[in-house]
Amino acid sequence: MKKLKTAITGIIASVILSGCVTTSEFEQMKADIARLYVESSQLKQDVSELKTRIDKMSSDLTSAVALKEGQLTLLAQTQDYVKELQLLKGRFEENSFQNEKKFKELNDKIAELQAKLNQPAASPEKNELTKPAQETLKDPKAIYDSAHIDMKNKNFASAREKFQEIIKNYPDFELLPNSYFWVGETYYNEKKYEDAILAYEEFLKRYPKHDKAPGALLKEGMAFLELKDKKTAKVVFERVIERYPQSKEAEIAQQKIAEILNSGNSGKKTPTKKTKSKTKSKTKR
């Protein structure tokens, strides 16, 4: 602008000094110079605005590039997460399938036992009939204590009747869950393992979080083991470990699984144990 002003001033001065310009021409020159000033000012403003726009476009472009890079990184991370999720999903579905298969086998076995036990049975023996003394007991706690005395004296049939009486007539009794558990114990002690399994299962369905639940599930597995059904016993022991991993019963279940696996490898040791058990049973009788 300064150079333009200097040039215009020089032109005007030279024209005036030469004396060759008329008044109208001089006025026209003044108008042209004024127009040049306006155009120059407008051009300067346009250049400034253009520079501002270029700076803004450059900033936007930088932000867009950074955003694009961030999106690409996020996309890569998302793809990794999707792959990991698919892998975990596959493992979960595989484990679920195996567990469902095991539990179905266990439920089928229990249903088979239930059907077998639902068949008409012989009339109860006289020593399993309700004793007159039991009819006088109306307090559930007294009946419960009396049942435990029978358990101590190995009178399991009498004890079972008293526990079943509590279950039938005293649904609000605080030790009702224990009564369900002890019914299973009476059967187990009588070596009626099929009945014991069903009794333990009934208890577990009603009270899965009871403090006796780990013991009931462990004894259910032991009952299957006594019935020589090692496959189902192993499934039950695995169930103990899965449901009650911090319990003592879980440790025992782990040992029993190891014994089952070892017995499967040794083969010849099992018949020896069977012979011993038969000898013992004959001696007791």
UniProtKB/TrEMBL annotation:
Matching entries from PROSITE patterns are given as: PROKAR_LIPOPROTEIN (PS51257), TPR (PS50005)
> What keywords tag this UniProt record?
Coiled coil, Signal, TPR repeat
Q: Which InterPro entries match?
A: BamD-like, CpoB, CpoB_C, TPR-like_helical_dom_sf, TPR_rpt
Does this UniProt record's set of keywords contain Coiled coil? yes
* Location of the region described as Disordered in the Swiss-Prot/TrEMBL record: 261-285
Coiled coil ranges (UniProt) are 33-60
Which windows of the sequence hold TPR repeats?
177-210
Domain of life here? Bacteria
Q: In which residue ranges is the amino acid composition biased (Basic residues)?
A: 270-285
User: Residue ranges of the Outer membrane lipoprotein BamD-like domain?
Assistant: 138-261
KW Signal (keyword) present: yes
A Gene Ontology biological process term: cell division
Q: Which HAMAP family match?
A: CpoB
- In Swiss-Prot or TrEMBL terms, this protein is called Tol-pal system protein YbgF
The organism encoding this protein is Thermodesulfovibrio autotrophicus
